[in-house]
Amino acid sequence: MAQKKKQKQKPGFEDYYSEIYKERWDALKSGLLADADGYSISDGLLKPYYLDMASAAAARTLDVHPGDDVLDMCAAPGGKTLLLALALKGSGSLNSNDRSSDRRRRLKDVIENHLPTEVRENIRVTGHDATRWGLHEKDCYDRVLLDAPCSSEEHVLKSPAHLNRWSPSRTKQLSIQAHAMLAAAVDAVKPGGTILYSTCALSPLENDGVIAKLLKKRSDKVCIETISPDSENLSGLNAETTDYGLHILPDRNSGYGPIFMARLKKF
């Protein structure tokens, strides 16, 4: 009987990320498992809201101004939406979207419990599929924030059930979905408008990989806008430059992050 060929074993979570981050992985893993100090936003809110400082920096890097029409494509749980709404100062418009009905309920609660009435009046909450946005709204928004669903390795590490189910195919599938959402964001933003793409992923496939794929297919539509790691919006954070954006990693930021961000301009 012919001997069966041995299937090549897929790398586990530890093997996969230690191969990417090499000798840095142990410190990075410790940073992911650490609990960062609470960071709150309160100015202009009915009560403080706590979120990751790096997440707040990503929302502020979209550079929203009063009067802008803004889309938050994957808005739940709502911390970034609060920052976008505050930046509008009651003018312009904000569409806060999330496809999940459960997450959308949480998003609505965050908006109602934290924003004054006069700020909430310019916000609508929707439940569209972000990958198909360009089919029903094109060239509509001055600013688009896409905080894409991602591997969220921090949560995987903290959940034995998720860790046991993890495989390399997860990050590949999420990168494909993120690219579809980013392409839809390009359709949704006005010429001259800005897109801020962000994730809380460590995987390069979901970060620079998504941007590289978009630029290959849409180089006639968008270009990268450089984000300075010394920007005022990133004050207090150590942001590392990548091929197309910045990465804020918890081992060098007192537990804040990970957050990847890249900013694109539509022609």
**Class in CATH?**
Alpha Beta
Average of per-residue pLDDT values: 95
Shape: globular
Radius of gyration: 19 Å
Cα end-to-end separation: 63 Å
CATH topology: Rossmann fold
Low-pLDDT parts are: none
Number of domains: 1
Element string (H = helix, E = strand): HHEEHEHEHHEEHHHEHEEEE
Largest sheet: 9 strands, mixed
Query: Can you tell me the CATH architecture?
Result: 3-Layer(aba) Sandwich
Amount of helix: 25-40%
CATH superfamily: Vaccinia Virus protein VP39
Structural class: alpha/beta
Q: Care to count the β-strands?
A: 11
* Beta content: 15-25%
Total count of helical runs of at least 4 residues: 10
Could you describe the 3D structure shown?
The protein is of the alpha/beta class. The chain has one domain: Rossmann fold (3-Layer(aba) Sandwich). The protein has ten helices and eleven strands. Strands 3, 4, 5, 6, 7, 8, 9, 10 and 11 form a nine-stranded mixed sheet that branches. It has a two-stranded antiparallel sheet with strand order 1-2. α9 (168-188) crosses α10. The longest helix has 21 residues, at 168-188. The chain is globular.
